[in-house]
Amino acid sequence: MSTPPGPAALLDLAVDTAREAADLVRAGRASAGDRVDTKSSPVDVVTAVDTASEHLIVGRLLGARPDDGVLGEEGAARAGTSGVRWVVDPIDGTVNFLYGLPAYAVSIAAEVDGVVVAGAVLNVGTGELFTATAGGGAFLQTPGAETVRLNGSAPTSLAQTLVATGFGYQVEQRRAQGAVVAELLPRVRDIRRFGSAALDLCAVGAGRVDAYYELNLNPWDHAAGALVAAEAGAVVTGLGGRAFADPMAVAVAPSVSADFLDLLQELHTG
Question: What is the distance between the alpha carbons of residues 266 and 270, in angstroms, rounded to a whole number?
């Protein structure tokens, strides 16, 4: 097995591919509702554009690097032999895409030997591109503006902490998650629910929210966004000493990380 390329080269391929996929997704918005199927529940949707975007992404990545592995939300799965695996969400925020809400993204991450080293999250609705490489920092490119390095936020207390979260697709799961939010809300600044885990994680990195938590994410939901948050200085972890997304995913500003993690632990065991 040859030595994998460095994170910067993998990021370049991810960005080029994400931009091409975003063009496809953008062009498909007008007909987004024409072919819609469901997956785990009636509100867990997939469109023909999701499938076409994943097909394009996998084709471009493997066309450039045919020995790599791939894991995609819409079924792409290949082991590969190079030590590199691409983790792909062709549209993260499909419901937003259906409704025309400008928070849906193409998310592409590159793992080397199981560790994410490069990630790109492109918000198709706004054109904002979040990128990160392991040890190289996180950045935001906004159309018409200079690229900026991301450094997160530093709230002074839980009462000043703006929190993002998301909900599962099953009724009972949503009921339990809603009960947690009801307990959390009086103890923080406010709650935001954007509908895209990848963009939520990038929002922590950009300091647009101070914390994010969600249960039962899949690798394609968080692979690129979690790297952006971590490289921007956020604490990216699970609860009770467990790994990130096992099953709780948390990204939080360091200034309130201990208090926020204690609060989440209390609410999920109380």
Answer: 6
